[in-house]
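Page 47, continued from p. 46.
Same chain as before, 74 aa.
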Amino acid sequence: MAEDVSNLVLEQLRHIRYGVDALRETVADHGVRLSAIEEHTGQELVQLAALNKRMDRFDERLSRIESRLDLVDA
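Result:
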């Protein structure tokens, strides 16, 4: 009977170890996916900053054009 109990305990421990190993793999996969999302978000922020810089230059150019054509309200 004691041998049956020890086999049962070992079987349960193997099952738990298998579940923990599967969780480790899942967490590692999620880490990789999270890194990819963070990288993508960073690239989007860089592109947004570049677009904002271009818009600022357009605003400066438009202001100069308006002032040359006397379209600016004084």
